[in-house]
Task: structure prediction
Amino acid sequence: MAITRVLRVLVVLTLVLVPRGVPVMAGSVSSLQVKAAMLIKFTDFITWPDQAFERSPDTFVMGIMGDRELVHLLQPLAGKPIQGRHLRIVDLDRAEDRPLALHMLYVGRSGIHRWKTTVGTLYGAYLLTVSDSDLFLDQGGIMQFVEKSGNRLGFAVNRSVQMKSWLKFSASLLRLARIRDLEPGDAL
Amino acid sequence: MDRLIPGSSFQAKLAGAIIVTTVVCLTFACTTFWLNDRRIRKKNFDRVVSGVMEMISINSIAALYFEDSEAAQEILSSLKAGSDLVEGAALYLSDGQRFATYVRPGNGPEALFFPERVTTEGKLVENSRVIIVREVRFKGAPVGYFLLRMDMTGYHRQLVWYSFQALVIGLLSVLLGIFISLYLKRQLLGPVFHLVDTVKRISLDKNFSIRARVFSNDEIGDLINGFNEMIGEIQERDHALERQRAGLEDQVTTRTQDLTDVNRELKRLNLELSRANSAKSDFLSRMSHELRTPLNGIIGYTKLLMKENSYLGDMETERISVVLQCGEHLLLMINDILDFSKIEAGKVEIKTTPFDLGAFIRTTADMARSKAREKGLPIVIDMDEALSSRVTGDYQRIRQVLLNLLGNAVKFTDQGRIVLGVKPVGDRIRFAVTDTGIGISDQGLKDIFKAFAQVGSVRRKSEGTGLGLAISRHLVELMNARLCVESVVGKGSRFWFDIVLPPQASTRKFPSLVQVSTPVDFPVISLPKPPPGNILAVLRARTDMGDIAGIRCWCGENREHHEEYSAFFTLTERLAREFKINDINKLVSVSTGTATEMEQHENHIGGG
Result:
């Protein structure tokens, strides 16, 4: 029921903010909102293993780096159930917000060069990493927002990294994704 | 079957049964298969539809969720590889907005096919199209709608085509079934029909040499073998019968030949017998005549001796009377035998002449009275007054019978009386002679009319020949009547007969030449003078012969003379029967000549 309520909110959000047929402009407020909705929606098609929740059994922790605006946008959804747990939004740019565990990481443009050293090494396994930067997959990230024809927002998946991450992606999600198969460091 | 196809042959019935069975069974089978196939097709169709629905629904969840129309389009395009029943499909977002469409290549523009908005599940059937809308749900919440549009034309065409195929196959199966059944029927029942044909041919031609052909070694073969054996047996029996019949014919021919031979022999014997019989009769009548003539002489002269020679002593008189009695008896016997042989030879005829019944009865009674008087017996006439006196009939034969009966009555009656009764019975006249004699026993009554039979334990004075009653019976029968008798032993007897004596039609006068006291109605001959003595002796002898009749007598009315000459009259009467009256006149004149001449003449007549 919780999920349906979240979805209903999201649907209402998208309907209000993103009228059909209107292209989503990258960088605009609307674009960010779409990204926020999609981040939440991704969790419906990805399954985290139980080991991911050993340190924080009751919370699903979503960390955001380099995009404070998105943090604000998502903050109201905190506490909502994701993967059967309460959602917690963490702004990783603030030093006091260092969670015990991290399940999902969004990297904004400003954080693209430091996420790997600060967060990537710390939380290693069971972490879904998403960014809107074109460099992200080459850096060993799993998902990346991409612009599709007609200014639509799509996403790409680095399949080899995803396979190693112990995260299970549903086929439906993969069907929608642009698949990349890059070993980390290939392009470095 | 016979009720359905009355009067048809067994073959037709069997063929009918086979055809009906085949048609019914195959029709049932085809219909069942057709219906089953139809059901399966429908089920398959439903399964295909639901499969498509399911697949598209599941695959399109993410596309709808992320509102990725390209992905949605791609998913719908996968229908291209599926059933060509799918004409088109569309995905709608959960708010009802059309999101992605698919139209099978070759169909019209999409606008013709899909509504702008869809907000509910449902199914719509229009003409040959089916539109199904299904909600796509993700985690319990609707994320959109899937619309599937199917063109059933092909499906229906396929169904019709399949039905047509089923019908054709069914019809072909029926035809094949009938053909095979009839072929098998002919193969199986051919021998039976051949047997039936053979039976018909045998019964038509009656030719038992025909045999039915044996086709197989099964039960029908056994049947035909049995039939052939049976026919063989019949044929064998037929031959046996034929042989027997031929033998029988031979036998019949032989027997017929034998019979013919026997018949010829019998004819020959019969001829011989009749010759012998006629010879016998001839002999008897000749002999009677020959015997009578000398006997008459003996009797006549014996009587003369007794009457005219009073000088004879008592002893001589006694002996002469014995001679006379013996002669008279002998004469009586000869006369009887003569009469009997005449009757047997069929030479006696009944001659009808008019006569006076009353006078006839009186004369007859008088004739019998001479004997009766000797025994002191009265003869009483009991005649009905109402009887016509003038009648016609053979009075001589009636008299002969009556005298015989009266003679018998006298003979067997010692006391009492004898009644001669005459009375009408219907259109006949009954003559009855009743006596009070010894009577006749029952056994006697049975034999009484047989020849040479004489009733009574003791032969009464050795009188009679035993022929009297037999002769009487024959004479009565010749007059179309029957001589009857009734008797009580010790009380008496009664003999009677009823004969027809028609009254005389005319009142013609009788010849009245005879002027004697007893009126007689005979043709009478007048004699010019008394006959010579030797003739007279003969006449006297004849008087005793029994057949006494009235006589015209030249001696007046002297009764003595009358009796004496009555015999002469009998002679002349007999002659009158055999000659014409003129001849009799001549004869009489001759008979008045010499006795020799007369005898010669008589012999001539007897021989004739």
Notes: Residues 509-608 of chain B form one domain.
